Amino acid sequence: MSLLSSLTRLLLPAEAPVVDYPFVPSDVALYRRTAHPDADALDEQTWDDMLLPQYSAQLARETSIFGQQELHRRLHADGGGVAASAVRVRTLAQDAGQRQQLHAACTGLRRADREISVALFGAEPAPAPRWTGLLPWLPPALLLTVVLALATGVVALWGVVLGLWLLLTVVQVHYHEAVEEWTRILATLQQMLRAHSLLAALDDPLTAGLREDAARAGKLNRRIAQSAVGNLPGMREYRDWLWLMNVRHYFASRDAVRAELALLRSSFERVAALEADLALARHLAQTPRYCWAEQGGAVALEQVVHPLLAQAEPLTFALAGQGAFISGQNGIGKSTLLRTVGLNLILARAFGFCYAERAVTPLLPVYSSMQSEDALEGGESLYIAELRRARELLALAERAPAVFIIDEIFRGTNHLESISAAAAVLHTLSQRGTVIVSSHNLVLAPLLEDRLAPWCVSRVGDGLRVAPGVLQETNGISLLAARGFDQAISAKAGRVFDWLSTQAHSPVSRAGGFFD
């Protein structure tokens, strides 16, 4: 090592520690929206309904913005390319040493504090203006003019000095913010290229795809780096304000990025994919219950659980050619069952695995309606919000087959209109896709039995069971006393319930007459 290199290493600040920068969800979503805007099998409400923000945060531990963006893209994608990723994830999940080696090579990615997918996959950087070729000559011209003014004493030369100094200042001030932002983008690009080189240098078959252009990646990394000497204490200000090195580097590095955009995009995709696989493998290695899903036309989930519930009770749920109408007592876990089924179907399509002992799943998008609420800011009542979401689901059903997961449809209007509207919408949706709905309006079960098989969630011993049938014994009124209501309230409610029950029409045996 040369003396200059040794002194530089001593004087330069130490490399920044690894700190997982708190990127906001909109930053994480930019890669999908910029590079893959048309490959989207999830919408925003389903994303929130299925608790995917919380699940993504669980997956993203010790993962950089690159891996986070790739995981986010896969969760929204249509499932293409899952097989190749699943092979890598299986391999890594079984080999802790391999995971550790790859994790060490990717650690620098977590120093990134800028999202760069827009810079790479958005509009190409504009080429440097022609006048930037004059920038290297401005500082020497200024110094030469100062020397001439001092040597000759010609006052007019000081006017030239002032003009050149003002020109340097104007250039510096005008590009200051752009240079600072680009510097942070470059720092992230360099971490990506460095990880590319480190991964390619490993004797690992999973990184073989990075070796072909690893030398180009390393060369580009050096090309866009600023001089280490320029970062010595006190040197940066002198270098930038007098010699315009930061502005000159800004234009030169933008041209370099523009020339190698194909390499940078490819590097981003491969590095991000490998880190995403690593995150999945690390997660599965710590997961007690999961399986690799089999692709099929039906839905069959044996002993399935929700990954966000620490004490999740496993359930077995299967559909054969029909959707499902799910009933059950209050608080039994119907909404949790819907989220469990929905999330596992999404993960099977995105990653290839489920949190179950065995899983057969269709390669279909999943859309849900579970969290409609009054929107005061938009002046939208609960029922209007429910109607808007129902129209969205019907429009999605027109585009392609899908799985529709719905919890308590049309709560925001009176009982009779709620049942009528729900029956019409659910029957139409079930003709175009697979509908899984839960409701306390049990009369919907016979109305929709030609399209939705009735299933009931009940407690058997210490566990839960999903079995064919409709809830027979409700518990809404009994919960009044259990939750501290006066006995007189419970009694009045019971009398009203008995009266309403006697007024109800006889159950409808089938709904063909209504929907034919």
From TrEMBL:
Span of domain DNA mismatch repair proteins mutS family: 321-498
Domain called AAA+ ATPase: residue spans: 320-467
Pfam families found in the cross-reference section: MutS_V
A GO cellular component annotation in the UniProt record: cytosol
Keywords: ATP-binding, DNA-binding, Membrane, Nucleotide-binding, Transmembrane, Transmembrane helix
Keyword Mitochondrion: no
Organism field: Rugamonas rivuli
PANTHER family on file: DNA MISMATCH REPAIR PROTEIN, DNA MISMATCH REPAIR PROTEIN MUTS FAMILY MEMBER
Keyword S-adenosyl-L-methionine listed: no
Protein name, as recorded: DNA mismatch repair protein MutS
Recorded superkingdom: Bacteria
Family annotation (InterPro entries): AAA+_ATPase, DNA_mismatch_repair_MutS_C, MutS, P-loop_NTPase
